[in-house]
Amino acid sequence: MATPIGNLADITLRALHVLQLADTIACEDTRHTQSLLRAYGVDKTSSQLLAVHQHNEAEASQAVIERLRAGQRVAYASDAGTPGVSDPGARLVTAVHAAGLRAVPLPGASSVTAALSAAGAVAIDAEGFVFAGFLPTKSGERSVAVQKLSTESRCVILLEAPHRIAELAQTLAILGDRQVTLAREITKQFEEIATVAAHALSAWLAEGPQRTRGEFVVLLHPQMAQHDDGDSLRILKLLMQELPLKTAVRLAAEITGASRNTLYESALAWKQENGSAN
């Protein structure tokens, strides 16, 4: 079941009803969940709480299955938001299904859909969005991931922790003028949602120490369609005959206003076709 991502009022009546009825509540952190239950006036003993988190998800899933087979009603709650999206829960649900048992969703708060609803990043006639979650923590792997996402024309949703948001902003700078929405502390007292160009993310974060605090949802807005009458590619080919590839791409982009990433990909394709190198 989904639990509030910040504001305690974001609990559903159905979730409260199930929490009252549950014989066992499987949860990421039993202490956190016990505090949440007390806030809603739900009384559960410590033996009725079962820890199921990313470090014990496999073995704890078996404990859940045993309780279900014994006829217990088991509810699973993440620390915040909807389980199985970016929080633990997916392996538990898979194990329950594999055991021939049923998992019933209890919808509610989600940082992903909350940020998406306020960002204006997906038009009605758009082709949807892509949920990429957390990118790799190593800088090299993260850069490769962002390069791949740079060609994605749809809205891309990322998640990031406060201690890594500055590094992510630096990596996203290669996206240039592509609009990016940062949504932090969603539903909490200091909630902030702002949209800036990718190359300006680091500067925006540096404007105040509070801007790097809290959990982040990062939305890369849809890639604007490039309308090219062929001039940019013709100019690029001419420049590549006299200049190194990167220089040719940079100048072609400045002259024509075309996307540097698009021109660079075209230049690499031509090099491969011709078997040449600059």
What does this structure look like?
This protein is of the alpha/beta class and 278 residues long. The protein contains eleven helices and eight strands. A five-stranded mixed β-sheet has the order 4-5-8-6-7, with helices on one face. Strands 2-1-3 form a three-stranded parallel β-sheet, with helices on both faces. Helix 6 links the parallel strand 4 (129-134) and strand 5. Helix 6 crosses helix 7 and helix 10 packs across helix 11 (260-274). The radius of gyration is 24 Å and the shape is elongated. 31% of the residues are buried. The model has no long low-confidence stretch (mean pLDDT 90).
The H-and-E topology, N to C, reads as HEHEHEHHEHEHEEHEHHH
Major β-sheet annotation: 5 strands, mixed
Structural class, please? alpha/beta
Globally, the shape reads elongated
pLDDT averaged residue by residue: 90
Count up the helices: 11
Give the low-pLDDT segments.
none
User: What is the first-to-last residue Cα distance?
Assistant: 56 Å
Number of strands: 8
Level of helix content? Answer: 40-55%
Q: Output the radius of gyration.
A: 24 Å
In what range is the share of β-strand residues?
A: 5-15%
Main sheet: which strands, in order across? 4-5-8-6-7
